[in-house]
From TrEMBL:
Its EC number is 3.5.4.25. It catalyses: 2,5-diamino-6-hydroxy-4-(5-phosphoribosylamino)-pyrimidine + H2O = 2,5,6-triamino-4-hydroxypyrimidine + D-ribose 5-phosphate; GTP + 4 H2O = 2,5-diamino-6-hydroxy-4-(5-phosphoribosylamino)-pyrimidine + formate + 2 phosphate + 3 H(+); 5-amino-6-(5-phospho-D-ribosylamino)uracil + H2O = 5,6-diaminouracil + D-ribose 5-phosphate. It is an enzyme of class 3 (hydrolase). Its cofactor is Zn(2+). Residues 7-142 form the NADAR domain. Binds 1 zinc ion per subunit. Belongs to the GTP cyclohydrolase II family. This is GTP cyclohydrolase-2.
Length: 350
């Protein structure tokens, strides 16, 4: 049985599907506040009526104005209304990518406008209506599900995450290509057009959760979260790419080889892997969901900078993140610098 999502009011769950949802749409030199404003205005050829609907303070008011001037509705409206709705719904999602991510993340669920007032655009309240708006939404969803950056990740849900540094908002994503689960921890209000301070942190169970001193990962994670809070806002992306992409069990095998004298690069290569197997292209989807176009990236890794730039992610500034030097990871840090090109101050590695 196909799972169904019912929507109606814009302030309810899945309210972004409603034509009443706040979603500015720029057409030529005119900005329509919602798709409802545009749809109702297209019923008329009288410019003054269209202007009144455009200037309506709410979509409800736009709807009521179309009823007030019902005697002026153009004669072919019933013939063209479906194409008008299809056009403006597509534009709504094309121009409001956050809504598009939410739409694509509904997967293959049946989308139904649960309206007892409308049996053409909605289900009539009893499920017997034509649900034409729902059909259009599913058509638009199918289109964008194949397009970048919406085809990289699937947004699942969000929740508060109190930490020792402050309370973050945790967003959960599933990567389409691999099925891996990734997180974005957002702190504070991200200002539109201003590059936020971010950290792309690859999962390191041994360092992040088991307090290993063999690497600097756990230390960097803590410092990055602290830096974001001190900056007032930012995002910590927690990526499930254990062991530079080789996985936890292979990482243990690599550690065994390191115990016998290999460095971190030699160990990976002895197991048949490249020194770094990570892929950051899917991060474009997470950044797009959060409406981030440019970032201040906390990293010492030039390869990460190049990989992100290759993936089309704009880096306005690289912010060093030197933390966790200790007697157990001296060789590890020196290999990072000499073989992987990590940029450390001379005072950090002795």
């Amino acid at each position: 049985m196909i799972e169904e999502i019912q929507f109606y009011e814009p302030n309810e769950d899945f309210g972004f599907l409603s034509n009443f949802a706040d979603s500015p749409i720029q057409l030529s030199d005119v900005t329509w506040p919602t798709s409802e404003h545009y749809y109702q205005a297209q019923k008329f050829t009288d410019h003054s009526v269209q202007q009144k609907i455009l200037n309506a303070s709410t979509p409800d008011e736009a709807f009521q104005l179309s009823r007030k001037y019902g005697h002026l509705v153009k004669s072919d409206w019933m013939d063209v209304r479906h194409s008008v709705m299809r056009y403006i719904v597509f534009e709504k999602f094309r121009q409001n990518p956050h809504f598009t991510h939410l739409l694509v993340s509904t997967g293959d669920k049946l989308l139904t406008e649960h309206s007892h007032k409308d049996s053409y655009w909605g289900d009539g309240g009893d499920g017997k209506g034509q649900n034409e708006l729902g059909k259009i939404l599913m058509e638009v969803r199918d289109y964008f599900a194949e397009q970048e950056p919406f085809n990289y990740v699937h947004f699942v849900d969000s929740a508060k995450l109190p930490t020792q540094w402050g309370t973050f908002r945790m967003y959960g994503f599933v990567e389409h290509a691999t099925g891996k689960e990734h997180l974005a921890l957002v702190y504070g209000d991200l200002k539109s057009g201003e590059p936020p301070l971010i950290r792309l942190h690859s999962e390191c169970l041994t360092g992040d959760a088991l307090f290993s001193a063999r690497c600097d990962c756990g230390f960097q994670l803590s410092r990055a979260m602290e830096n974001i809070v001190n900056a007032g806002s930012g995002v910590l992306f927690y990526l499930r790419q254990e062991g530079r992409g080789i996985g936890l069990i292979n990482k243990i095998r690599a550690y065994h080889l390191q115990d016998n004298g290999a460095d971190t690069v030699e160990a990976n290569e002895a197991l048949g892997f490249a020194a770094d197997m990570r892929d950051y292209s899917f991060c474009k989807g997470m950044l797009s969901f959060l409406n981030i176009e440019s970032v201040k990236l906390m990293t010492n890794n030039p390869r990460k900078v190049k990989a992100l730039e290759k993936a089309g992610i704009n880096i306005s500034e690289r912010v060093p993140l030197q933390e966790g030097n200790n007697p157990y990871n001296q060789g590890y840090l020196k290999t990072k610098a000499s073989k992987l090109g990590h940029m450390f101050d001379n005072s950090f590695i002795k």
